[in-house]
Amino acid sequence: MKTILLAGLVIFGLLRSASAFTLAGPVANGPDTWQVQNIGYGPPSDDVAPKNYGEGFRRNTPVMYYACDATFLQYFGANGMAAVSSAFKIMNSVFTNNPTGLTNGLDGYSTNLTEFAFDTRHVNYQAQASGIWDVKSFVLGILVRQMGLADPVQYDWTLHDRYAAPPGTCPIDMEYSVIMRNFDTGGYPVPGSQTITSLYSPYVNNVLYYYYILEFCTGPTVLARPVPITVDPTANPDSSVATQFGITWGEYYTGLTRDDVMGLRYLLTSKTINTESPVPGALVTAGTPTGSYTAFPSNTNSPSNLGTFDLGALLSSAYTNDPVTLEALFPGVLVGNTITNVGLITNFTVFAYFTNFPGSALGSPPTLVVATNTSFGIGTNYTETFLNVITNHYYSNTVVTLQTVTVGPPPGSAVPVTTIQTNITSTKVTLKGVPSGDYYFIPTNMPCGLEIANVLLTNVISQTNLSSSFFGTNITVATTTNSAGISFTYAQTVSKYTNYVFRIPILSCSQTTNSPGLYRGIQKISFVETYYDDYIGTFYQPITNTYTAPFVNTNGQYQPQTLVRVVTTPDFLFQSADLSPGAGAPVGRTVDQVSIPNFDTIDVPTNSAGPGTINPQTIISLDRVGPLLFNNFFELTGTNYFSESPVDSGGIDNGAVDTLYDLYFVWGSFDGTTNPPIVYPDGASIDTLEGLIQIQISPLTLPNGHVNEIYPTTNAPAITFTASGGTVTAGSYSWSATGLPGGLNLSPGGTLSGTPTQAGSFVFQLTLTNTNNQYQAVNWNYPLIIQ
Questions:
Q1: Contacts of 42 (CB under 8 A, 6+ apart)
Q2: Smallest Cα–Cα separation from 324: which of 248, 388, 382, 379?
Q3: What percent of the chain shows pLDDT beyond 70?
């Protein structure tokens, strides 16, 4: 192997700070065709390539899900799953722990990100001596890469060209052009608000780097590459979590560094506006929610001014009046389908007259006679379907007051009769099979048909969703289909004392597939743990997310855009596999196998390498082959990873660095405490998996809530979760939740209550903890909308 060392250092005399980040993207896309393997781009060097300023790729989904499959659980167990969750918790904390509150995300930190340290690495010397790699820290580095950041040390100085000048003898005639792909925004999300000398920076987390070029001339790729070196030999190199090999055995991260967060803020800040499409599978909902609408008009003649009208009068009139007449008699009623029936109609005519009956004495006063004539004829009856009528109270039998009229002379009247008296007697009678009650009007001005957001009730017996049946006092909304093909039906089982107030969101439900547009950065992302069913390849519970994207319209004005995303598979799926190369391959070990970030270049401008988006799904597989014992023909002792020396090659101390030294390790979990490291494999996973499958919880869905109103309603001020199945018994578990909307809380007994203080679409994680420690955690994810 021939090498040539070429040193280079650029001095930036007016640098404002000592930071930098590198943007990740596809290898050699667009005009970046110079990114070839011979000079260190693409595998085996890296699976991403550095992009120029303004050409970064980012995530644009505010809620993302992660899970571990059976292969991961079988090898790493519950502790390994907890280690993965710890990495995501660090990411979540970066987006939510800003000084100005949760809503601002990355924009809420100080200008120079002084809340973050330059180096967050620490050493557990017991783990270091045992050759143990920390799963949490390794996963954290993968996540930073998957968020759109590349190795800032590797690409601080990087080759753009390699040219053999005449006569072309390598390495003497080799010439190179070296560029920088590290950017320092001075902590600001977007440069321009202050004077800057250069965007490019040779610093990473306050450490200054220069480089030499390693030239191989011939052999397998890579043939030449720059190698970064710290100017200060005492500095801590490779501190950034985004650095490809930032840690080794015994080292662990406690958080992201300042430069990691600077890169994430540049990508996700609301000040960075890119042309991009929403995540595949999301539906754009045309229109913007602007609140809720009390659906039904008031009626001062109804009890308690609830806006109800006489159902009995409507039904009786509907039997004998055609649709036009009925709509005129009951303003606001819309009649849909009408069935006409011709039948026999009986008419009664009542009249009165004075007469003397036969045999009356001469001079007797006249007698008042009331008679009824009956006539028969052909008439029309109607069976009508109402489009916008919903019953409030419904009684299958009607109690009416019947009046008996008696006409005659007042008692003791003189003869002949000079006055006539009418006596009226009232009697209450139950008419069986004659419906009565009251009703509401459904508003007809909703742009997408009917979608009831919530129903406020009193004295409810039980509640059912998506039921079209009608039993007894059930209240039923006829199924309505909007322009998106979505049908809505809602039913309540109630008592005769129940009152209702219905609210309908003002929202256009017409949905279209995603299309490119100008979008601001989403500022923060929430990572939510869930569970994955390997047999059917989906979540145990598919999740529907409704969220608002920061859309910018053609006038340059911010306009929130509502999207609906149904998630059936995790955005990040963790597996384990035997990744050893096998017979006939070079001796070595593949630590992990990570799917390349799913870079979407469909919206990348012509003649540009970016910007673009990173879409799900990412599959991350960690090696499970276990500790390797290396041998050669001359020495078959099986060198153990605990005793291997970095200068011991094949068991013979020849002073050379063993190129396989980094592969002598086992997976584990550890921190800075005196607790001994956890070493994998860990066989405690079956209980966790069985617990997930066997345990059932209730309720499965939650009603929507409203800002500054008791959740879910004043008359039902709490919801209690219950669990059954598996080994769950009364008193054997407790509940907790993360990600609840402000103002809501969950008691250890599972009672969800409070008054929401913020509106939005939330997905909180509900956790059941077994007090017998049989389950590390069993989690469910609940979407909850607060209007």
A1: 27, 28, 35, 36, 49
A2: 382
A3: 64
DSSP code of residue 283: E
- Dump pLDDT digits (tens) for 372-384: 777 766 677 777 7
The distance between the two most distant Cα atoms of the chain, rounded to a whole number of Å, is 155
**Report for 174-178, 242-246, 325-329, 484-488: range of highest mean pLDDT:** 174-178
| Beta strands in 568-651, from DSSP E residues, in sequence order | 572-577, 592-594, 598-600, 612-615, 618-623, 630-632, 635-639, 648-649
- Please name which of 561, 570, 571 lies closest in space to residue 515, comparing C-alpha atoms: 561
- What does the DSSP 8-state code read for residue 625? S
pTM, 2 dp: 0.65
pLDDT tens per residue across span 564-581: 788 888 999 999 888 776
Measured CA to CA, the distance from residue 298 to residue 301 in angstroms comes to: 9
Per-residue b or e along 147-167, where b marks 16 or more CB atoms closer than 10 Å to that residue's CB:
bbbbbbbbbbbbbeebeeeee
What was the pLDDT predicted at 418? 55
Lowest mean pLDDT among 13-22, 288-297, 308-317, 342-351: 288-297
- Measured torsion, CA atoms of residues 357, 358, 364, 368, in degrees rounded to the nearest 10: 10
List CB contacts of 83: < 8 A, sequence separation 6 or more. Answer: 76, 134, 135, 136, 139, 669
3-state secondary structure of 336: strand
Residues in the chain: 787
- Identity (one letter) of the amino acid at 187? G
Which tokens hold the place of 180?
Answer: 């920088």
pLDDT in tens, 421-442: 667 777 777 777 677 777 766 5
Q: Strands, E, within 59-118: which ranges?
A: 63-68
CB atoms under 10 Å from CB of 698, counted, come to 9
